[in-house]
Specification:
The chain is mainly alpha-helical and 371 residues long. The chain is built from 17 helices and no strands.
Length: 371
């Protein structure tokens, strides 16, 4: 879920502002321009891979939804043994995969996949308290050439340049995000309709899946505003219904807690994935396209686990920054072509890593130096 948790913490909690003036790694600092050969090859060799396949999108999304909700139903109905715990793990993984399509939705061109966004919001976005308006209009700024890694990038914090204790805080925020989302939609959204000053704060600070506490979102306009309003209304009704059903006893407290627990698992897993999506070494200055690529991470095959913690193409995060228009199901093909054609000295190979533990270790090591 390309998707990053809601901005409900401030720069003081995170230790330093995103303008911390610490130098990036020598390998990235040495390259201040663009690797034109790599950029030309990436564009030229993948021209036939830009069209999304509707059958793959619908089958993958709906299959993940079915598996996730069936597993969740087993959690509700089975109360003993290891079965509910195994079902809970399956529910988290399947719904996390389904939720990750929010990232693809932010890149789909209008008319390419009719009704996909509507179906996704109804089946996934609203129930998981992360409707697509929370990402659309936010994520595109993360890809803007002049905004990546700056104060205007909603999805960037220089975590490698911050104090070590900020990393566990970053993960904890992801784990408690469902409670914050409930509050945002059940309380802040209705109240903000009555109090314009509060509405401005809700729109600016609490309406994006972002991690940069300095980012302020602008009010939507036109079609974006209409999409925002119905999605927000649906999420508010869903949140209020959950709370009311639990408070009146219609929904057992155990079931309510299971729902929150699964949502917490989904958002925590996404936060872990976010933690290793980049090297987070930029000090706030604008970067070239190649520098942005080198600050990002690919975890290609043969490893299988990344398909669980970085699904829907997110294991090719660096490649996605190079080719944001290529749909997730074609990123593997694009990677294979570029990896085989570009020589060992190409910058393309410098972002490849081989596992979650090593990536977390690299970030911990970099952060430890800031203590």
């Amino acid at each position: 879920m390309a998707p990053e948790t809601m901005n409900m913490f401030n720069a003081d909690i995170m230790g330093k502002s995103p303008t911390a003036a610490n130098a990036p790694s020598p390998a990235r600092a040495a390259l201040r321009g663009d690797d034109k050969e790599m950029l030309k090859a990436a564009a030229g060799m993948t021209r036939d891979l830009n069209a999304p396949d509707a059958k793959i999108f619908w089958t993958d999304m709906l299959g993940s939804v079915v598996v996730g909700y069936v597993a969740l139903a087993i959690c509700f109905t089975v109360v003993s043994g290891v079965t509910p715990y195994l079902a809970g793990i399956i529910a988290v993984l399947a719904l996390y995969r389904a939720g990750s399509f929010i990232h693809e939705i932010s890149h789909i061109k209008k008319g390419d996949l009719p009704y996909f966004k509507l179906a996704w919001n109804a089946l996934v976005g609203v129930p998981l308290l992360a409707p697509s308006f929370m990402y659309e209009g936010v994520h595109n700024q993360h890809h803007a050439k002049t905004k990546y890694g700056t104060l205007e990038d909603p999805e960037y914090l220089p975590l490698a340049l911050m104090k070590p204790w900020t990393l566990p805080v970053f993960l904890i925020v992801g784990a408690i995000a469902p409670v914050m989302m409930l509050g945002r939609f059940a309380i802040l959204a209705p109240l903000s309709l009555l109090f314009p000053p509060l509405r401005r704060e809700v729109v600016a600070k609490y309406s994006g899946l972002q991690i940069n506490p300095h980012f302020r979102r602008k009010p939507p306009e036109g079609e974006a505003a209409r999409q925002w309003h119905w999605q927000e209304a649906a999420a508010s009704v869903w949140s209020l219904s959950l709370i009311a059903a639990m408070a009146t006893g219609v929904l057992p407290i155990r079931t309510f807690l299971i729902i929150l627990g699964v949502l917490s698992g989904v958002m925590f897993l996404n936060q872990v994935r976010t933690l290793v999506a980049h090297f987070w070494e930029n000090d706030g200055e604008p970067m070239s396209v190649t520098e942005q690529y080198l600050d990002s991470v690919n975890v290609p095959p043969p490893g299988l686990l990344p398909e669980l913690w970085a699904p829907v193409g997110l294991r090719y995060h660096a490649l996605h920054h190079l080719l944001p228009g290529v749909p997730y199901h074609n990123l593997g093909k694009a990677h294979a072509r570029l990896a085989s054609e570009l020589g060992p000295d190409s910058a393309y190979h410098q972002t490849t890593r081989r596992g979650l533990i090593r990536l977390v270790g690299h970030l911990l090591s970099a952060s430890w130096k800031q203590r």
